[in-house]
Amino acid sequence: MKLELGKIAIKDIQFADSTYIADHILYVNKEEAASLVLEDDKLLKCHLDIARPGDATRITPVKDVIEPRVKVSGGGEIFPGVIGKVSPTVGEGRTHALDGCCVVTVGRIVGFQEGVIDMSGPAADYCPFSKTVNLCIVIEPKDGLETHVYERAGRLAGLKVAAYLGEAAKSLEPDTLEVYETKPVFQQAAEYPDLPKVGYVHMLQSQGLLHDTYYYGVDAKQFVPTFMYPTEIMDGAIVSGNCVAPCDKVTTYHHLHNPVIDECYKRHGKEINFMGVILTNENVFLADKERHSDMVAKLSEWMELDGVLITEEGYGNPDTDLMMNCRKVERKGTKVVLITDEFPGKDGKSQSLADTCDEATALASCGQGNMTLKFPAMDKVIGMQDYIESQIGGWAGCINEDGSFEAEIQIIIASTIANGFNTLAARGY
Known about the structure:
With about 425 residues, the chain is of the alpha/beta class. About 20% of the residues lie in helices and about 30% in strands. It contains eight helices and 24 strands. It has helices at about 30-35, 145-165, 185-190, 230-235, 250-255, 260-265, 285-300, 315-330, and strands at about 1-10, 10-15, 20, 25-30, 45-50, 55-65, 70-75, 95-100, 100-105, 115-120, 135-140, 175-180, 195-205, 210-215, 220, 225-230, 240, 275-280, 305-310, 335-340, 365-370, 370-375, 380-385, 405-410. α7 (about 285-300) runs parallel beside α8 (about 315-330). The longest helix has 20 residues, at about 145-165. It is globular. The chain starts with a strand and ends in a 21-residue tail after the last strand.
């Protein structure tokens, strides 16, 4: 598959009578965007707000972050199987992206594992979305909704607005155009016979109970490990639908901008032969963990990979899936490098991962989420701070009357995200 990704740089968002892009400014018709959200009768109200880098603004509780995009050519629709048609598949042709801006869904909490984005102050250093211009969709659900029903309504609201904004870029000439290509597996292997064949084992959060991710609209816990072209993931085939710990939540934005895929493409044809992605999930029951890790190892052997990188989403229970994948792939003769974050307690003295194996000899750490930070009061809060004490990373009594609080950095969206899209690391001695 060959994908052309055209990027239109967005430096600001402003409200206007119509939605369009001019001079790198995204103008948004609030009423049209809000009407898309309120098509769902499970949502009573919708308020749009803008958060810019450097503002004394806090956004919380954050549900998802999405980059506006549109398919220009090549078949397929953006976010297939969720709001776009499921067929044909995405991953080829041309897609335009509004680079530098995001849609952020916010509102009354769904699950305690929802996070914070500060646009300035010390917490901004830990979050990529303090550097983007954010259109915040603040939603108010009907009373009495079951949590999974509310989650779905909020998820679709953000995706619909992102797709609506993306249409403004469909006929524009992009500022930059990047081309990515992965050929069918045997052709790809033959193209660079002297380079090591490298794959990526991409673990999706799929434990249920608000721990879901969607693959062409299918809940990830319903599929078995499979092969994906990297360009499919870059083109919106995977959508976040979970409320895992904010620090390592893979938002829909992060699926579009997976750093492992990006770095492998940069080295493709030079240092490595990037063969593609083995997509798998994270299971609850032991039998499922054994079955799916066996299939991951079988796929890596079939592709004759020399090495793989493996990432997870979440921590605790998924650490076992991570280690099972590592052990079984290594035993098939493929070298493994793990990428994950750590949770060793505030003092750093506890075991960092819930599981391990002898084969886990190479690991890149994305930092530890238990470190505490003081969050100053902000002039403006988009959403509400009512839930800070119960959001993961907070605790009873952590918030002060002036709106400042102390919490572990795992309350910050993407602060230690376990695929490397962050600024933290750890050094072994």
